[in-house]
């Protein structure tokens, strides 16, 4: 049950992050956004790591998982922010959400065992997420689509697909690291790498930029990005595949919220995907009870 709670909690938090980033990435740009999010995250995680101290379990294997988690997260987030800058939430989020399927597949390939009923239910949930992503132009008004040049609508999809793979690998590596190490240590690498590779060079080259409108959105995203990964890591200790697929539900939550907040329309296939996800979660919860 803890894997379900951790995954669902992460989904709600990641949905909040996605909604904030969809606006702020257009205000200050994806690179500036990533620089600030990593800086905020490091400011939160670093003191906790100092208090925790160096764990005895930290060795070459866990260090390798930390490195994969860090690089995968930084690259994946930058790609996701770039996709959100040019695409709709209802288009980008479901595609990026296949990160959960990537992490779950890696867990199964690595030997994690799940029951037949739970496995089938996870497939249903993953299909629901993918269905929402198929309606890539449905969130745009018909007039906008007809006025757009051919090939304009799919622009964010390559970014989103690459982001899904990178973050999926990061999720799996984070889960593997958090099994032996304290959660805060699993959260540390991406913030250190992000600040070193993005924040500091950007600050030295052109300076960090912020607008009054973007500030609260970036602050919320920075805090929630850490919280989301922490919830996922805690849930993954009790089942990587389950926690990863449930965390990917942030796409459905974000798509529905974007309908009410930003006026993005939901197509029938997206509604069908949301319905599959809701049913799948209910069944999975019953199986795990």
Written description of the protein model:
The chain has 289 residues and is an all-alpha fold. The chain has one domain. The protein has 13 helices and no strands. It has helices at residues 2-28, 30-52, 60-86, 89-96, 99-109, 116-134, 142-147, 156-180, 183-205, 215-236, 240-247, 250-262, 268-288. The chain is globular.
Walk me through the topology.
Layout: H1 2-28, H2 30-52, H3 60-86, H4 89-96, H5 99-109, H6 116-134, H7 142-147, H8 156-180, H9 183-205, H10 215-236, H11 240-247, H12 250-262, H13 268-288
Specify Rg, calculated over alpha carbons.
18 Å
How many distinct beta strands? 0
User: What is the end-to-end distance?
Assistant: 7 Å
Largest sheet descriptor = none
Residue share in β-strands:
under 5%
Helix content: over 70%
Number of helices: 13
What is the N-to-C order of secondary-structure elements (H for helix, E for strand)? HHHHHHHHHHHHH
Mean pLDDT: 84
Taken together, the total number of domains comes to: 1
Low-confidence stretches: 136-154
Shape: globular
Structural class: mainly alpha
Outline:
81% of the residues lie in helices and 0% in strands. With 289 residues, it is an all-alpha fold.
Task: List the keywords.
289 residues, globular, mainly alpha
């Amino acid at each position: 049950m803890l894997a379900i709670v951790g995954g669902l909690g992460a989904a709600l938090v990641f949905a909040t992050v996605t909604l904030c980033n969809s606006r702020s990435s257009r205000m200050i740009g994806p690179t500036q956004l990533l620089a600030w999010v990593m800086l905020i995250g490091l400011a939160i995680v670093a003191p906790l790591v100092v208090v925790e101290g160096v764990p005895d379990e930290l060795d070459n294997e866990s260090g390798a998982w930390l490195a994969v988690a860090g690089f995968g997260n930084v690259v994946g987030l930058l790609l996701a922010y770039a996709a959100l800058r040019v695409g709709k939430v209802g288009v980008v989020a479901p595609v990026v959400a296949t990160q959960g399927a990537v992490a779950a597949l890696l867990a199964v390939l690595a030997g994690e065992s799940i029951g037949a009923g739970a496995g089938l239910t996870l497939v249903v949930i993953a299909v629901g997420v993918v269905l929402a992503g198929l309606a890539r132009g449905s969130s745009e008004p018909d007039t906008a689509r007809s006025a757009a040049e051919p090939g304009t609508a799919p622009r964010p999809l390559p970014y989103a697909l690459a982001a899904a793979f990178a973050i999926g690998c990061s999720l799996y590596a984070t889960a593997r690291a958090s099994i032996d190490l304290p959660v805060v240590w699993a959260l540390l690498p991406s913030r250190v790498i992000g600040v070193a590779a993005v924040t500091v060079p950007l600050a030295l080259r052109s300076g960090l930029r912020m607008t009054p409108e973007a500030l609260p959105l970036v602050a919320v995203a920075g805090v929630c990005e850490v919280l989301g990964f922490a919830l996922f890591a805690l849930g993954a200790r009790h089942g990587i595949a389950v926690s990863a697929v449930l965390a990917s539900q942030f796409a459905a939550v974000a798509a529905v919220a974007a309908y009410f907040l930003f006026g993005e329309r939901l197509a029938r296939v997206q509604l069908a995907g949301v319905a599959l996800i809701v049913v799948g979660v209910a069944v999975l919860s019953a199986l795990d009870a």
